[in-house]
Amino acid sequence: MKTKKYNKKWVLLFLISVALIPILITIYEVIFTDDKSVVFLGNYNPKIAVIVVSYYVLLLCLGIYWFIRQLIFIVKLKSEKSKVELMLLKSQVSPHFFFNMLNNLYGLVGKDVTKAQELILKLSDMMRYSIYEGDNETVTLKEEVDYLKNYIELHKMRYRKNIEVDFNCNIDENKKVVPLLFIILLENAFKHGVENLREDATVTINFTSSENNIKFTIENNVDSSENLKSEPGIGLKNLKRRLELTYPNKHNLLFSSTENTFSAQLILN
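Below the sequence we write its predicted structure tokens.
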């Protein structure tokens, strides 16, 4: 392999050297002769001149071809890198949620079989969607909404406290979207809101779509005594990076908070 690369290097140097000979001769004539004007290849036999010009044209074509090949290679490399990164980011969605639910399921099996069976079915649907549908480039909004509703129902079954979830949905169910984007914002609302409140936990979701955009807004109350982190967690960093890869310059992700509430809004154009 090294020998082939070595030989190619010397062949390339030889071809370049041959290509430079007419140019060097012309430069020599301009500098060291008394000719007031010098015509490139003017003293060559016409047949040789044609061959040399043809050779230069061939080199130019090869150079253009090589340049285009390099551009295509760079574009493909960036595309593959983005795909690999996107797959990695998708694989980081919701692992802690599934582990927590399995632990809860273990404790529930011996106490309430019917509830445990219902939980298993919902968890199975979520895992199936996350693994199989999550690998698709796009899914329908209906599929995303069903996934979010399953997540909410599982959490309601998990906690021994009243959770008020107001889910307002006005969407075109067949509209396509990149999967597993909105779940991160929903997870964030439960993790930093519901889990830290002993009572009166509320989550309000407004999910709408139009011909030009998709809008997802979520608001949850928080414990005012808890200091919210100024730095976003890994989930939100994950979401921001995925949006940069899948909706470059076509999305808006906004956050706002008060002493008792936190809200997030994602708009996909």
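Strands lie at 139-140, 163-170, 176-177, 201-209, 214-221, 251-257, 261-268.
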